[in-house]
Amino acid sequence: MHRSTRGAFAFACALALSVAALPARAELAEIHVAEQYGISYLPLMVMQDQKLIEKHAKAEGIDVKVAWSKFAGGNVMNDALLSGSLQFASGGVGPLITLWAKTHGNLDVKAVSAINSMPLYLVSSNPAVKTVKDFTAKDRIALPAVKVSIQAVTLQMAAEKAFGAGQEHKLDHLTVSLSHPDAMTALLSGRSEINAHFGSPPFQYQELDHPGVHLVLDSYDVLGGAATFNTVWTTAKFRSENPKIYAAFVAALDESMKIINGNRKAAAETYLRLAKSKLSLESVEKMLDDPKIVFTTTPNNVIKYADFMYKVGSIKVKPQSWKDLFFPNAHSLPGS
User: How far apart are CA 251 and CA 51, in angstroms?
Assistant: First the structure.
């Protein structure tokens, strides 16, 4: 071997050895996970209560501190995720799809998993409002985030069905962004401009138990069947740089689902304790036993929301399949 060639070879070997000797990039020592209000976030609440992420991270050989935060809507949560101050966001399908389209080809935000399928009810205290066609300029509809929350998107879909093509935004000007607890308080007080609420469990059931409040719309009727309400999402960057934490989160969510579906009474007790709710144990158990409420990681009718949002111009990128919206760990599920 020529002297210069031997020198180059020796240098390459030394460089390879020095690179191999470098410590592997450490995963984050602390992560922030966000949830919103309501019983739909029970899988995350169980994960928090039983420290399941920490448990499964330990099994992966790492210690991680998990900080939990509550947000009123998916739009604020998305901002936190993009800023790097949040690692896992959770919320309705609408905010997920919005951020997926916005980050497609760069940060590549995708869903880690679905966390439930459940109906969303639009209720009103205005006796004149029987259907969405009856809303007037005097009405105000509270929902988590105008235009982007899953409730807002579902209302747009209902408006298109009621008023015709191109009329999907006809009721947008009546919507107001409020957290579910604040919306329920406003609706039931009778002293607010809010006289309708497009909510979620348990708030929608509490409202319907109140005299003078009635059902206007069921999201399952709009979608033509059961549909995913909430998902959890993160960035491709976080997933690639923290594979063990990501795997621990997925395993923790799977275990949480088994806990909830295996012991509804214990799950109800967890909800009451963490939510500091004044609901009775029996009422929460009744909600959890509703056959329409399913805690599952399988996406259901998610693509219908994406197709609609693309059709009306809310997003500029069209997913070809529900799998485009989810990371590969979910692809083996019988989703839609």
Answer: 12
CB 325 within 8 A of CB 233: no
pLDDT tens-place string over residues 67-86: 999 887 667 788 889 999 99
What was the pLDDT predicted at 13?
A: 45
Where are the chain's structural domains? Answer: 30-117+227-330, 121-223
- Whether domain 30-117+227-330 has CATH 3.40.190.10: the reply is yes
Using 50 as the pLDDT threshold, list the residues of the chain that sit under it.
2-23
pLDDT in tens, 162-191: 999 999 999 999 999 999 999 999 999 999
Q: What is the pLDDT of residue 290?
A: 94
Confirm whether 30-117+227-330 and 121-223 share one CATH topology.
yes
Structure confidence at residue 71 (pLDDT):
84
Residues 6 or more apart in contact with residue 167 via CB below 8 angstroms: 159, 160
The CATH-assigned architecture of domain 121-223 is 3-Layer(aba) Sandwich (3.40)
CA–CA dist 232, 116 (Å, integer): 10
